[in-house]
Amino acid sequence: MTILKHSYFSKVTSAAPLVVFRVGFGLMMLVSIIRFWYNGWIETQYVQPKFFFSYTGFEWIKPFGAYTYLLFILCGLAAFFVAIGLKYRIAIVVFFLSFTYIELMDKTTYLNHYYCISLLSFLLIFLPANAQFSVDNYLNKKKYTHIPNWCIDSLKLLLGVVYFYAGLAKINSDWLLRAMPLKIWLPSKYDLPFIGNNIMQQEWFHYAMSWSGMVYDLCIPFLLLYKRTRILAFVAVVFFHVFTRILFPIGMFPFIMIVSTLIFFETSFHQKIIGFLSNIITPITRLFTAKKIAIENSYSYQSKRVILPLLIVFFSVQLLFPFRYVCYPGELFWTEEGYRFSWRVMLIEKAGYASFKIVNSKTGKFFYVENNDFLTAMQEKQMSTQPDFILEYAHFLGDHFKKDGHKNIQVFVDSYVGLNGRLSKLFIDPKVDLYKEKESLQHKNWILPFKDEIKGF
Known about the structure:
Strand content: 5-15%
Distance between the termini: 33 Å
Number of helices: 18
Order of helices and strands: HEHHHHHHEHHHHHHHEHHEEHHEE
Structural class: alpha+beta
Largest sheet: 4 strands, antiparallel
Strand order of the largest sheet: 5-4-6-7
């Protein structure tokens, strides 16, 4: 075992695939930041709202008002520096911290692909992605042709986990046997040319999309690894992500995944990409030709004994953390306890409402809250169907009205939720004073039971 471990971690490979990944990742992130700014989402999601939902343990992370724009500028600059390989190590650390901070500012904006970007950027901190084709090569007068093989494999493993776990999550009775929630979403795409008024309305198509989506996610990592199926698999990746981008408003994520899966291709392919890019920027690089760059054969880690155990822990968490839902009773799709950060992509459609009642426990007097006085439309939609949102908002309301001079405050909620096409049912126990309940990682026993069964992972 020791010999095998030693031989694997001693193997080296061309740095080209990692370098292409760095350039593509940096450019995609830069475009994403610019797109976010251009569409006015910084203002609507992080400046205008009066209240922000927090992650447990990260309640201290909040937007900076108008200065939030500076955070996005910092993140965008870091992404650009990553792409060109300028002060790469500092740039990728700054990008990871700033991007992750942005995503932690308001739980309302949670998306699986934001989580994926944070993980990829964290992993890139420990990889020599500036080994060649970077400004750092000119500044340091040194570049490397080869890097440890595990550097490439670690990115493949993380992408494989994202796909495979997304496939495992689709092995459930709602997705496969009821074609939910695609049966709700696809018919609404009636305005698509050629297929909107015909194919999108067919039940067989809803089931075909559900089953093919499950098979695709489970198989695509292995098909990309195998040389004989790699081209076909990449065509499937492009088709799948472009098609889902047409169907659903999921931003840059399809293009990010398409570019990321290039890491599975052979070294010669990536060398051709670097050669093509080199020809484009040759006029710029000529400014640095006076500096002779030493070419070294292989990049060597000085702190491998620290980095490798750290990455083993990192991947162990990624493999185990999505299964934390087994620690909670009840239906996962209903309670959503252990749902986030587990690559459960587009599996549920919840619709509901939550009406909060502020009660004076001594006099019995009460009044109802207008949620739009405190929340944006998107925040209210997310809050109405997720227990941790409901609890946090209840505490906010209690604190708000306490400061406003109200006494003996109790906060109750009338909440009804429909899951994946089912009729709306009472969601939260209306007799529980949520202002007395505390947020924790334990099961929330004031969530009413789900009177149905969804079988699967």
